[in-house]
What does this fold into?
Amino acid sequence: MIRWMIVIFLALLLISWFTPLLHKLGFGKLPGDFRFKVFGREWFLPITTTILLSFLASLISQLI
It folds into this structure.
C-alpha cells in the first residue's frame, strides 16, 4: 500500500510540474474542459484533456 501511495504522490508531482507546459500547448482550453467559480474559488475540470492524454499514453504504451 505504501508503494501505491508513493506512485500516486510522484504522479501528482509530475502533473503539477508539466501543467504550465500543457497550458502553453493548448491543453486545458479544449471544449469539454470546464472552469468555474464557486464560493470565491476557481475550479477546473479537465475532462477532454484527461481523455486525450489518456489516449496518447495508451497509444505510446502499445508502441513500446
